[in-house]
Backbone:
């Protein structure tokens, strides 16, 4: 059981929680994640560690409210507790040997995962550029934090309401075309975004690391739910990843597997909105 010591609402759907978890805080490294369970009836949900403070003994998570567990997590306040908080899990991010110039690319709520990557390498002799992309100005998160841990920060919005107009790949290609030489690109965000970042970097032979987010249950590699195909081989994101060589990932398979419950979560063919049973339960429990 861990106690929430700080809560900050970043935008209407994204929330930051800092919790007391000293053992995890001492061992956590960029790229790793935790699995939480709100209460004894809750489901197990993985969340990447957004930040950690070994001195304070705290771990920070940033999440988007999209279902029962994250809705219930979002209703908790400072002083409340989370029943299960297990980690750090997964393999830490590893840059190519001798990397001195990297670009961290984050999309939407994926920027919460991109942030610890930039923070970890900034000020260590590695030049860090950050490209953060959002649909519009209203959902921008962590802007000040990114500016504080990057040599160059580029903020993109799809509609041009803030920063520069365009997708993150527009800015990335612009930089590469201008002669920017990156030793590695780290891309974290929606699967289509990571796929197109990889397609952008491949012609330039830039090593590209992606953080995959397949369906996951136990976090130990035993259930097989999080299997992904990388370089033609089956890997398990929870123990072999979540970071992989983006140029080797079968993104089409990953998208298909992640969409297995789409019919239950989206609008039905009749046009009537399907009410998710778990979302309905969350509403009843919270309200």
Residues:
């Amino acid at each position: 059981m861990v106690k929430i010591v700080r809560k900050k609402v970043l935008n209407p759907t994204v929330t930051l929680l800092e919790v007391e978890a000293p053992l995890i805080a001492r061992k956590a490294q960029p790229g790793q994640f935790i699995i939480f369970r709100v209460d004894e009836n809750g489901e197990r949900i993985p969340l990447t560690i957004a930040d950690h403070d070994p001195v304070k003994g705290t771990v920070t998570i940033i999440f988007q409210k999209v279902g029962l567990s994250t809705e219930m997590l979002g209703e908790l306040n400072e002083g409340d507790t989370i029943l299960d908080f297990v980690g750090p899990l997964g393999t830490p991010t590893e840059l190519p040997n001798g990397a001195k110039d990297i670009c961290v690319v984050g999309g939407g709520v994926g920027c919460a995962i991109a942030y610890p990557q930039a923070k970890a390498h900034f000020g260590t002799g590695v030049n860090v550029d950050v490209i953060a992309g959002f649909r519009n100005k209203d959902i921008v998160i962590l802007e000040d934090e990114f500016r504080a841990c990057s040599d160059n920060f580029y903020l993109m919005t799809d509609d041009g309401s803030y920063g520069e107009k365009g997708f993150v790949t527009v800015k990335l290609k612009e930089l590469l075309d201008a002669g920017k030489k990156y030793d590695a690109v780290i891309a974290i965000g929606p699967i289509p975004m990571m796929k197109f970042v990889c397609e952008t970097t491949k012609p330039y032979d830039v090593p590209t690391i992606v953080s995959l987010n397949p369906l996951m249950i136990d976090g130990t590699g035993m259930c097989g739910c999080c299997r992904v195909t990388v370089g033609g081989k089956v890997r398990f994101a929870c123990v072999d990843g979540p970071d992989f060589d983006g140029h080797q990932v079968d993104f089409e398979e990953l998208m298909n597997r992640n969409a297995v419950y789409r019919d239950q979560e989206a609008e039905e063919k009749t046009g009537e909105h399907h009410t998710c049973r778990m979302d309905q339960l969350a509403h009843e429990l919270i309200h």
